[in-house]
Amino acid sequence: MSRLKIITRVPSKEGLTRCPLWINPDFMLAVQNLHHCEAKQLICYKGEEIKAVMPLYEKKRLGISYLICPLTAYYQGLWFFNLEKRGANRRLLDELNISSEIARWLQVHYKKMQFKLMPENYDVRGFTWGNFKAIPYYTFTYNFEESLELLYDERTRLKKASLHNYQLEEEFLPEEFIHLLKILYQRINQKLGLSYSAFQQWMESLYQHNLLTQFNLRREGKIVSSNIVLGGEEDDRGYLMMLCTLPEEMKNGASIVHYISFIESLKGRFDKIDFCGGNNPEVARFKAAMGFRLELFFMIKK
Questions:
Q1: CA-to-CA distance for 285 and 281, rounded, in angstroms?
Q2: Could you read off the pLDDT of 221-250 as tens digits, one per residue?
Q3: Residue 117, exposed/middle/buried by CB under 10 A (0-12, 13-18, 19+)?
Q4: Alpha-carbon torsion, ordered 219, 221, 224, 228, to 10 deg
């Protein structure tokens, strides 16, 4: 592949045959507003044809630009376009050439940066050969073509939970989610790092653009667990960003019922669910026990 032209632009769908979540301009601008950064699409051209797109989130300090990983943009991966008709070996070389060109471009434009590639971007040689660090991270996924294989303890909790008559509904109630989110962060003795009101506005913006779905688990009419899933019609994967359950309901198996129920509700909308994380020991153990599959991805740092 001959040398490529790389530019950045305000997030747009112009020239794109697909616009999945992480490069969707509505999503990117919502992240920009929440995190007080500048969202850009890095566009890689060969001639007049777009070959790759990558989301960038830029901040400035003392006049120097750098890239960040916003909490609400879990991946900042590379999306490749117009390579499908080429053979597997040629596609591998083309993707490597593109990532190498992007790495060189980033070196010139940013002194400091970090971004998380997607699991699909497992070939990070274009960055590591450019003296970037590639740090391994993990996530768990579920493919709808597979059956869940819960461990014994989880099957026991699921059976126990059946006694409590939990009911799942799909309904957008952002205030209820924020309420449970506050309880979650108080329980783990951490800070969200964002304004809760601004986070709610982010949720409302994505919901208006059909990029966010909320599922609520009720017991006796009260919401005891809630989660948000990101992804639209152009996404093969749905992304579980957060799930919040009342501590007293976790003992009754509410979290397990919630996972099982919302997975069933998403069947037919996506091919796979990405649970966005497997790096916290307690959470990772739970996701593994639920029968989800471990996947590797990389954070690139400079």
A1: 6
A2: 999 999 999 999 999 999 999 999 999 999
A3: buried
A4: 120
